[in-house]
Structures are given as structure tokens and as C-alpha cells.
Amino acid sequence: MTQIAYHISDDLLDAYKLGSLPHPFAVVVATHLSLCDTCRARLEAEDVLGGVMLESLEGVALSADARAQVMAALDRSAPLRPVGPSGIFPAPLMQALDGQPPRWRMLGGGIRQQVISADKEGSLRLLYIPPGKAVPEHGHGGLELTLVLQGSFSDSAGRFKRGDVETADAATDHQPVADPGQPCICLAATDATLRFRSFLPRLLQPLFRI
Amino acid sequence: MSDDSIRPVDAALRAGAPPVKLGADMEQDGVTDSPTDPMTEALLAVRDRRDRDAFARLFDHFAPRLKAMLLGSGLRDGSAEDIVQDVMLAVWHKAGQFDPHRAQAASWIYRIARNRKIDLARRKPLPLPETIEEPPDLEPDAEQILALRQEAALLREALTNLSSEQRTTIQKAFVEDLPYSQISQMTGLPLGTVKSRIRLGLDRLRHELRGLNR
User: Fold this and answer.
1) What InterPro entries does UniProt report for this protein, alphabetically (chain A) (predicted)?
2) Chain A 116-155, CB below 8 Å of chain B: which residues?
3) How many CA atoms lie within 13 A of B55 on its CB side?
């Protein structure tokens, strides 16, 4: 595992932990956590406090047969194991993909994408950028998280490799370019429709659901 | 980050000094030579031997506390009890994922309960990080497990040293699902201690995770 340099912010990790992040962002955070020991440890270490607090609570009695009911249910079949990882795609991403490999759609210039979800919670998509190609320039309407799964890209904020996550907001105007070598595959979540400045005529945006 | 504050503890452990003295009004966990606390021991028996008696012990210990936590977060009695039963069943089914190097039983069960409760309020279940598969022949690292237990004891001690008003505030914030940053605002300085304890535990955890993920 390479050293991950760009992590999830405290605020985002808090929101994830409390379950208040919109789904597309939560998938990106869970995928990053699957690749990043540092952030996983940040998350799990706080459970130590949770455990101590749980221990310190004064219990409230359950109904008399509650334990017997649970004991009787132990032998019922276990819930299905969730979908596991596949290749470069960690388990939470494969779960978002319903266990299927990506179904790429050509965007032109060798760039491909799959929109995994797009609704009022925002959008989640996979992007495939050939080496040397620019991820289409865009301004942001809101928060965007981009997690690299393969290869790397660079922009004014730095160089992002597998596991690194770039956090961009309304103030960011960046133009990531895929580095030489492998095609760059990344997972991106946005909470607002991206406004492409060049590359793709604006009227085509609804068609591609970008 | 400075880790000065952990050193006396490590030194004390190496010297076989008596365990950290805990306040009488908090749950006791007199850390002894055994690296695992009794509930973690029970969870390991469930994991490794599908031990039903051990599971019953876990139920008796945690189910009432889980119910208190869920009631405190605003659930009604009936639904709180349903969730407690769900959570305890999940403990049975997911025990294979439990790793004593990364959590004590209390932390692990707390997380399952929290996630279960979060899912009730979400349209889609909260996506969770991939589980880390331990090699089946991995020898337990007693030092790491003991260190984790010691961290929890230190945290407990830090909480014990608060005024009862502060402690109540933290407990309230905890059952009401406030982020830790907000707990800190409500109580002022003391959470700094709690947070630094978490960070120390975190360093160990990260170390352990690195070892596992090779």
C-alpha cells in the first residue's frame, strides 16, 4: 500500500460517523477508509470513547423474554455477506455498484464515466481518464470529493494517487490532469450539478448527467 | 503530537505496577495481567467457539446498557428493545469480524449499535469500510490488546476526574449523538484530555492496522 497523503477532513469524518453525510459522499468516505489505515484508526479510536461511555450507562431492564427470543434466533440463517472487493474497487464501492463491474460510457477524448447514482442527494460516478488527459474543467456548485483508485492525477493542489482524496468546494477552480502511466480511475461525489466550462457544451450536460 | 503522558503508564506496566486506580462511580475495569477484559473474553469465545453461555453473558451485560443508550437518544421503549435484539443478533453473526487488537467488546458493540440506529434514519444503509480479514493463523499480540485495555482505562479515568456535572453533560451528548467537537464546546477543557487519550490509542491502532494490512 502506498502512503496516502490526502485524507478526509475532521468535519467530513464526523458527519460520516453520525450518518449525516449524503449517500454519495458516504460511499467515497467508506471507500477511502477501506484504503486508508490512518483514517480508519481515527474512526475506530473514537469508538473506544463510545465503548467507555456505553459501559458507564446505567442499564435499563429489557422485557423478561427478550434474551430467550434472541437466543432462540441464533440458529436462524445469518444475513448474507455483503459484496466484497473486486480488483481496484474496495467493498463499499462494489456494494454501490451492486456487485457489477463498471459499465463505462464514452464521454469523448478517451474519457469514460459511469454514473452510479444521481438524485437530490448528489451524484456518485466513476471516471476513467487516459494519461495526459485533463479531467474536464469545471466550477463547483458545492462540495466535491474525488478519490483516486488507480493511476494518479495532478492539479494546483498537488498529486493524488491511489487512496488519496481531493476535497474541493465552491471556491476551488482546479484542472486535474491524469499523470503519465496508467489511466487514472477515480470515484467522485458531488452535491450539485457540475458546470463544465469547456470540453463539453453545456447543453449536452443533461445527456451525460454530469 | 506529544506522547509524554503515556510513558508513565508504559513504564508502570513493564514494572508490573498496580493498575490505574478507577473512580468508584464509574464502571470498573481493574486492568490486571490478563490482556483481555471479561466481556472481550466472552466475545472471543463467541467468535472462536460459538459459545452460547458466553453470548448470554454478553447479552446480560450489554443489552440493558444498549437499551439505556437508545432510550436516551429519543427512541420509544418498544423500538429501543427491538434494536437491542437486532444488535445482539448482529453481534452473534458478525463475531468473526471482531479483532481484539483493534477494539474491546464494548467499543465494537457500541459501533454496531450506532450504525444500526443511523441506518434507521437513512434512506440507504450507511456504507461501511471493508472488513479487514485477519490471517487465520495470526498469533494474538497480548501487548497490543493490553495496551488497548489500558487506553480504555485511562479514558475512563479521565472521565472520572471530571465534575459530575461535566460527566453528565458528556454522557448526555454521547447518547444524543453529538459530535465530539460539540461535546468539547459544551464542557470546555476536559475533553482535550479525552481527545488526547483517543489520539494515543489511535497511534497504536494505526500501528496495528499497518501490521495487519501487509
Assistant:
1) Anti-sigma_ChrR (IPR012807), Anti_sigma_zinc_sf (IPR041916), ChrR-like_cupin_dom (IPR025979), RmlC-like_jellyroll (IPR014710), RmlC_Cupin_sf (IPR011051)
2) 121
3) 25
